[in-house]
Amino acid sequence: MKTIYISLSVVVMFITGIIQWDIFSLSWKYYNIVQALHIIGSITIFVMLIIPFVNMHTYKYRKNIIGRKKNSINGIFLGITLLLITISGFYLFLIGNRGGDIWGIYSFYIHLYGSFLLLFLLWYHSSKSSSNQKRKKIAKLNKIKKEDIFAVFALSILLFTKK
Questions:
Q1: pLDDT for 57-75, tens place per residue?
Q2: Around 86, how many Cα atoms within 13 Å sit in the side-chain half-sphere?
Q3: What residue segments make up the domains of the chain, in order of their start?
Q4: 31 FRET partner, CA 20 to 30 A, in 59, 87, 134, 142?
Q5: Is there a contact between 105 and 159 (Cβ–Cβ < 8 Å)?
Q6: Tens-digit pLDDT profile for residues 106-159
Q7: Rounded distance, CA 156 to CA 83, Å?
Q8: Is 82 exposed, middle or buried, given 0-12, 13-18 or 19+ CB atoms closer than 10 A?
Q9: Rounded CA gap, 100 and 8, in Å?
Q10: By CB neighbour count within 10 A (0-12 exposed, 13-18 middle, 19+ buried), where does 38 fall?
Q11: With 0-12 CB in 10 A as exposed, 13-18 as middle and 19+ as buried, what is 102?
């Protein structure tokens, strides 16, 4: 499963969630549509993409997690943040923030500020992954090879055209 799909789906959930924030003051008919899209889309994406991906990903890198490597600690924080956002999201979906209810207020703030933290941790985790590092190294080597080929080609043209 491609990590780009997971990243894009998290960004879509983030955007549809942020649009519901009081800062944007949407009219009620648009707010209902965005909220329904956020809830249905988030549950679908979470069940069909994120849970299987996290299970496969943690199984694949279980030795790194046990060894406490740098990116695995970040992954643990990413997983804890994802769990807290999920629990608070289900609370908000099933019970809601009824105003004045301390658990509703806590769930709202955990869900809101946790989403910002989740995006940051997801970006940091994916930027420090070994596959990204390998891709960057290969791209750098290919660039050097292309520059060498271009230099040899330019020198050969200069040498053969002067005669």
A1: 778 777 666 666 666 777 7
A2: 14
A3: 3-128, 130-163
A4: 87
A5: no
A6: 888 898 888 888 888 888 877 766 555 666 666 666 666 666 666 666 666 666
A7: 61
A8: buried
A9: 34
A10: buried
A11: exposed
Residue carrying the six token digits 């649009």: 19
Q: Which residue has the tokens 């292309």?
A: 146
The Cα–Cα gap between 15 and 156 comes to 54
Which residue type occupies 82? L
| Tokens 């979470």 found at | 46
3-state secondary structure of 27: coil
Rounded-to-integer distance, Cα 115 and Cα 121, Å: 10
**Assigned token pair, 49:** 């993409």
